[in-house]
Amino acid sequence: MDTTIAAICTAQGEGGIGVIRISGDDSLRIADKVFKNINNKKVADMKGYTAAFGKVCNNGEEIDEAVVLVYRAPHSYTGENVVEISCHGGIFITKQVLRAVLDNGAVPAQAGEFTKRAFLNGKIDLTEAESVIDIISAKSRSAARAALCVKDGALRRKIDKIKEELLSQAAHLSAWADYPEEDIAEVSDDELFKTFNNAIKILQGLLDTYDSGQAVKQGIDTVIAGRPNVGKSTLMNLLTGCEKSIVTDIPGTTRDIVEDTVVLGDVILRLSDTAGLRDTEDRVEQIGVDRAKKRLEQCGLLLAVFDNNQILNDDDYELIKNAKNATTIAIINKIDLEQKLDTDFINDNFENVVYISAKSGECREELTKAVEKIAGTANLNPSEGILSNERQRLAVANALSSVMEAKSTLDAGLTYDAVTVSLEDAISNLLELTGESTSDEVIDRVFHNFCVGK
Amino acid sequence: MKIEEKKYLAGVYDVAVIGAGHAGIEAALAAARLGCKTAIFTINMDAVGNCPCNPSIGGTAKGHLVREIDALGGEMGKTADECFLQSRMLNRGKGPAVHSLRAQIDRRKYSDVMKHKLELQKNLELRQAEITDIKMLDNGEGYELTTRMLAVFKCKSVIVATGTYLGGRIFVGEVSYESGPDGIFPATFLGKSLKELGLPLRRFKTGTPARILKSSIDFTDLEVQKGDTPPQPFSYETESLGDNKVDCHISWTNDNTKQVILENIHRSPLYAGKIEGVGPRYCPSFEDKIMRFKDKKRHQLFIEPCGLNTEEMYLQGMSSSLPEEVQLKFYRTIKGLENCVMMRPAYAIEYDCVDPLAMNATLEFKDFPNLYGAGQFNGSSGYEEAAAQGLVAGINAALKVQGREQVVFTRANSYIGTLIDDLVTKGANEPYRMMTSRSEYRLVLRQDNADERLTTLGYEIGLISEERYQKYLDKQQLKQQEIKRLKDTVISPTDEVNKILVSRETSEITTGVRLIDLLKRPQLDYECLKPVDTTRPSLDANIFEQVEVEIKYEGYIQKQLRQVEQMKKLENKILPSDFDYTNIKGLRLEAQEKLNKIKPLNIGQASRISGVSPADISVLLIWIAQNRQEKQ
Predict the structure, then answer these.
(1) Which chain B residues are closer than 8 Å to A394 by Cβ?
(2) Rounded to whole angstroms, how far apart are CA atoms B289 and B282?
(3) What's the pLDDT score for residue A225?
């Protein structure tokens, strides 16, 4: 096999342990780049079926403590050299570890690729071949569905824009080279630099949002809303585990939007605690309230909080009305206090209702179930304009490095034919990202844009 | 008595070639040179190797093809050198990947020289005959060809290279009639016979501009285009060309030209809907250019001589299918052509060709063993594209007859391979023209190193002589020695050296620097370093060229070679030729259909088919492994 592949093998979510599997000729060498054994022994020097404890790092930055298991070819699942890194569970850490591995030379495993390799290396019996094919086609179907989702998204628009610009430069270079005797405008270094710099800026931006963990965090844009003092901030603090919002029992304490990210089960929520929804004369508070209303209209998930100990008031009715347009979980808080709330009315108006006592901390499990149910079924607004998986990230990273290569070739004063090679690599990386693969794009563009021929 | 009963057996051949244009010539010469008893048929003996369009050979990417044909032992490059009038290396300064040689040639002489070469070739018979019928022999081991004169030839292998003659139809404004190019008869019966045999034929279209009487052109204010000094030959065997013999000239159209076109566009058969054939986008008629690019103020044209013994001048850029009177009217709006006399009008020609998806990369038809196609018949366009395919078809027809393994040219070793792979994998929706943009490995596939890529292969096939091969090996050795010398030679930081460096706007040196590292700098070249390179041997210019390119572009070339290696791994995974892909569960429907239609030779080719996804490729890989295990 040509490449060394890697993927997270455990379920993505809040498990106790997460396993990242690396398979291929280079797996031991790659493991050595990201793993510092506590005994300083190299992974490459470890025998098969042995384990070591140490730290996983990327670019010198420590990510997690981990155990590394070594399988030597052919005695492994795939029949190749395999390293499994067991780190702490949870999406954020496992993705960081995978990133480290991919940054050091592995490529993301394709659908069913470990099994495919196992089969090709004779580790799996012939009779299982059919099922391997089934796995691959099933997984590629779901991947295709995922690709369709980004088709109209902001990410797609961004990528399309860069792709267009690069294509038009490539077409110009191509027409200029293939039709030297037509009156085609000279290719200008300035134009090329401009296009390259712009592409670098946007591609780098995409990677940065991913790199800083934003993409992982971005998950579902979630707003906690409810009338003042219903317990929103307590809920937020409980979910995030630290005192971000100032909690008092004076209504109107939270004046601005406070944000944080929590992981519930396998769903990531980007939480905003908003100012209580009420009409107020305090101008500063009013600005906060307006913002909260705006967020309500834009969010992917609304956690509408009601007070079990209070009867419904105008603010509550207003919230119920606003919640009609959002995917909502109604949260009835303070169930440790006497029930005054018309819970039947709430149940009539919301499909998902959760009863909690934020103060006593009995909420997380209930809420997790509800959130998972919704994430699996409802149409949440997927966050747009960001990279959502490693495959996309790798394609963008490759496109970026190709554009940078094109730029440095141009900088060095080499001829355009060398520039074109890198430029076309960048375009094919972007086409891969958007799932198109027509190799004649540039040529089609030449004939579209230029009047050439005898 | 029916006329069919008058048929007589006139000959038995190993290989028969239908058509003696650029494809047919290379095919017939290759087959005969490989030892096959070969016949080549032409409708008109005076049209062998005719150049019915531009009087030139080569150009961007096409020049690469000619060099490759020559490196394999083909004839086009040598004959072009013999008939050269003016030669230019296009794209100098644009980078080695796109350097392309183009020569103006004497078209009548080219035709004569080629005809004579065919006549002199051992094992080859040139015959004037229109083939009207083709039938597979009852035993399936070859074909029977019938001529208009009722002669019957039995052939083990047949190569169809009918160009624009097959069902040819000419259009000039409201006038249209059955004809081949240049007033030669078309092949009117063979198309029907090929259809009956089962070949998927369709209509394509192309065109050519008018020829103008030289003395009627006023060259006074026209820009002159001269050849290179010294001009470079195509063939690795041509020592030198001598001086350029002619000049070309450049003129421009103007608002009046455009006005004439706009007023008469309704008289174009294309715009009136009379032509059904698909024309190429890269070779549009002038009226097409006006209609498609309305904002363009003026269009360039080149005035090229057709030979030394003729006053005919070719107007490159001015092809048209408008009526003759309109042609003359718009030509006369052009500077220098105000009083021009038209000798031959421009015309569009529509013809039958085959869907190349019906062929393997050997150019043999999948469903018709020993039947090959080449040239415009395969959906390509251009003399050079035709010659390249002719050579491949001729080689493979001969190898098959002799029971040897056929040769597949790859995208990694040649433009020839790229051309054929594109045709048989993607098909052609318009006449296919070679372009440097079509090769993903263009820094490797350069015109300067065609011999390095292909001469060994040509030798193994049997078209490169022992003597020429030895010469090639000697050259390679000199090249390696020169690279070693550049690595071993250290240049001291003298004033003389730094003066050169400063004049070339690159940084001075303060310590000794290897010559190879100086040559790596984009600002420097062999020429400018000459004064300080005292140990430089006297070598062939082509060696210096190759060495310099390889040093300067090393990183890029290495990168492309790595991509080539990746692709080779996939191409070594062979797929069966006779398999029904609907039997593979797990392939998507679209992939099954495409794979069944194209029947790729290997996984590499399969991966280039549009509609076959990476997941489908995974499924195919598993299926191959499964088959292998079952067989064991």
Answers:
(1) none
(2) 10
(3) 84
Q: Are A64 and A56 in contact (CB under 8 A)?
A: yes
Contact between chains at A126 and B613 (C-beta distance less than 8 A): no
Q: Which A residues 421-450 touch B at CB under 8 Å?
A: 421, 424, 437-440, 442-443, 446-447
One-letter amino acid of A246? I
Contact A387, A155 (CB under 8 A): yes
CB–CB of A244/A237 below 8 Å? yes
Q: Do A178 and B559 touch (CB under 8 A)?
A: no
Tell me the β-bridge partners of B66: none
CA distance B370 to A11: 57
Q: Where exactly does CATH 3.50.50.60 map onto chain B?
A: 7-206+351-441
- Using CA atoms, how far apart are residues B392 and B415, in angstroms rounded to an integer? 12
pLDDT-wise least confident of A107-111, A121-125, A381-385, B120-124: A381-385
Which positions 73-112 of A are in contact with B (Cβ < 8 Å)?
110-112
A17 touches chain B (CB under 8 A): no
Dist. CA B106–CA B85, nearest whole Å = 6
Tell me the C-alpha distance between B471 and B464, whole Å: 11
Q: What is the residue whose two structure tokens read 């021929």? A: A453
Which among B61, B283, B302 has CB closest to A453? B283
Residue of B345, B246, B250, B346 lying closest to B305 (CA atoms): B246
Please, which contacts does B193-197 make with residues 24 or more away whose CB atoms are closer than 8 Å? B193/B132, B193/B133, B193/B134, B193/B135, B194/B134, B194/B160, B194/B166, B194/B352, B194/B354, B197/B134, B197/B135, B197/B136, B197/B368
The segments of chain B whose pLDDT lies below 50 read: none
With CB atoms and an 8 Å threshold, state whether B608 touches A174.
Answer: no
**Which residues in chain B touch residue A414, judged by CB atoms under 8 angstroms apart?**
95, 522, 552-553
Interface test with B, best of A192, A450, A454 (most B CBs within 10 A): A454
Which CATH architecture is the domain A153-212+387-449 placed in?
Answer: Up-down Bundle (1.20)
- Would you say domain A220-377 falls under CATH 3.90.226.10? no
Q: A257 or A270: which carries more pLDDT confidence?
A: A270
**Gap between the Cα atoms of B180 and B52, Å rounded:** 10
Per residue in A51-83, pLDDT (tens digit) is 999 999 888 888 888 999 999 988 998 889 999
What is the dotted CATH code of the domain comprising A5-109? 3.30.1360.120
Which phi and psi (to 5°) does residue A85 adopt?
-105, 115
Q: Please state, in angstroms and as integers, the Cα–Cα distance from residue A181 to each residue in A11, A451, A452, B67, B299, following that order.
A: 60, 12, 9, 21, 11
Q: Which tokens go with A386?
A: 């960001």
CA distance A103 to A98: 8
**Residues whose CB is less than 8 angstroms from the CB of residue A58 and which lie 6 or more positions away in sequence, other chains included:** A34, A96, A99, A100, A103
Domain B211-349 CATH class label: mainly beta
* Cα(B410)–Cα(B414) distance, integer angstroms: 6
Q: Which CATH superfamily is domain B572-631 in?
A: GidA associated domain, C-terminal subdomain (1.10.150.570)
**Domain B481-560: top CATH class:** mainly alpha
Query: What CATH number was assigned to the domain covering residues B7-206+351-441?
Result: 3.50.50.60
Give B521's DSSP letter. S
- Side-chain half-sphere CA neighbours of B545 within 13 A: 16
| Residue B14 φ/ψ, nearest 5 degrees | -75, -50
User: Domain map of chain A by residue range?
Assistant: 5-109, 153-212+387-449, 220-377
Which of A21-30, A178-187, B25-34, B539-548 has the least mean pLDDT? A178-187
The answer for A 128-187 residues in CB contact with B (under 8 A) is 129-130, 132-134, 136-137, 139-140, 143, 174, 176-183
A28 near A80, Cβ under 8 Å? no
